[in-house]
């Protein structure tokens, strides 16, 4: 018998033991109980065997996978078919941007097919954009808290529902017609803007780095500049739409705002946005038993929450208070407030003429996005 069959037999034998006890048939109860013990011992052995068999099958599968991988690496045809497409794209972009050099590297047929050439440069592959997303995780990006809407055009409209006036369903009775009411929507227009930067690069560095320059050297700086630009647009909306939160001179004003002013339907994505001074202030607060009010949480990027809401910390220069000497706090639902229209593409181009007298090549990187305000019912400002 296998483990499953033994478990079924144990269930049956247990019932026999209980039945014999109920009938006060001691001899039958003893006999059935001995058989039950034997079944339980058999179950332990069967489970151990099944575990060993499972581990052996897993080991064989791993060996087969390693064998296939070795065969693939030893076969040039298979290896070429599995070549990383992103590597081909990076190499193609590098060659394209170096095309004005004295001895420009020639693009292969596969490389020409792997990139998209725009009017003034090459469109970076999605892999480069994904890499920027990974790199920006080292910086306090506000985009991740917004409602990000991928778009493929520079302009357009998106309707936002404001619900209906009647907030209940009508109780129906015989021959009673249901209430007719339209859901009101407001169209939000977006116009994607270009955000860019020019990097002067020494030609000697360009020759040494070659096609790896764009992926290895530019990406970290582009990522940081991208986050700072996005944050600036988001913060501008937060500041423009914010209303005063609960009054108070200490952290209890934040608590009152969260408890009494934030609508239950908007609490889920609400964050507490502050600067390093605000974080330092909250970090020093303790309850009556000396326990910190900030709670550590692995579920949020910042690592800390206050009253269950993530603490998002920006630099003091990025988030300044309205009144000098005060500490700013925004209790805001960025997902509801900010509609982030993302073109998800970076265009890169170079010019050797612009930096001819300095023996430099100018590299230009452009990102496209727009941020529009939406539901501003959860955007409160407090100064402490």
TrEMBL record:
Record's subcellular location: Virion
Every Phage capsid-like C-terminal domain range: 121-370
Predominant location category: virion
Region spans: Disordered: 50-85
Superkingdom of the organism of origin: Bacteria
Pfam families linked to this entry: Phage_capsid
SUPFAM superfamilies, A to Z: Major capsid protein gp5
Bias type Basic and acidic residues, positions: 56-85
Protein known as: Phage major capsid protein
């Amino acid at each position: 018998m296998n483990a499953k069959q033994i478990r079924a037999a144990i269930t049956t034998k247990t019932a026999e033991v209980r039945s014999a006890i109920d009938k006060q048939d001691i001899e039958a109860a003893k006999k059935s109980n001995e058989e039950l013990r034997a079944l339980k011992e058999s179950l332990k052995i069967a489970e151990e065997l099944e575990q060993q068999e499972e581990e052996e099958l897993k080991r064989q599968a791993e060996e087969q996978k390693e064998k296939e991988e070795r065969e693939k690496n030893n076969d040039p045809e298979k290896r070429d078919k599995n070549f990383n497409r992103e590597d081909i794209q990076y190499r193609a972009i590098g060659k394209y941007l170096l095309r004005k050099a004295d001895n420009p590297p020639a693009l292969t047929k596969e490389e020409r097919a792997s990139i998209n050439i725009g009017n003034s440069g090459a469109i970076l592959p999605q892999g480069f954009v994904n890499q920027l997303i990974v790199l920006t995780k080292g910086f306090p990006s506000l985009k991740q808290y917004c409602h990000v809407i991928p778009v493929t055009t520079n302009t357009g409209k998106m309707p936002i529902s404001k619900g209906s006036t009647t907030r209940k369903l009508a109780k129906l009775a015989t021959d009673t017609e249901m209430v007719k009411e339209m859901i009101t929507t407001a169209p939000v227009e977006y116009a994607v803007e270009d955000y860019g930067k020019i990097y002067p690069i020494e030609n000697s560095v360009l020759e040494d780095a070659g096609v790896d320059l764009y992926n290895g050297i530019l990406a970290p700086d582009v990522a940081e500049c991208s986050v700072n630009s996005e944050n600036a647009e988001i913060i501008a909306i937060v500041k423009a739409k914010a209303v005063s939160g609960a009054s108070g001179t200490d952290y209890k004003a934040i608590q009152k705002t969260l408890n009494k002013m934030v609508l239950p339907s908007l609490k889920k994505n609400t964050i507490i946005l502050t600067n390093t001074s605000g974080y330092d202030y909250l970090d020093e607060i303790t309850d009556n038993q000396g326990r910190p009010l900030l709670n550590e949480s692995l579920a949020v990027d910042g690592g800390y929450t206050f009253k269950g809401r993530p603490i998002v910390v920006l630099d003091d220069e990025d988030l300044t208070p309205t009144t000098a000497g005060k500490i700013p706090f925004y209790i805001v639902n960025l997902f509801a407030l900010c509609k982030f229209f993302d073109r998800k593409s970076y265009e890169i181009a170079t010019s050797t003429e612009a930096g001819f007298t300095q023996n430099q090549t100018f590299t230009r990187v452009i990102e496209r996005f727009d941020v529009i305000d939406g539901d501003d019912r959860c955007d409160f400002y407090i100064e402490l």
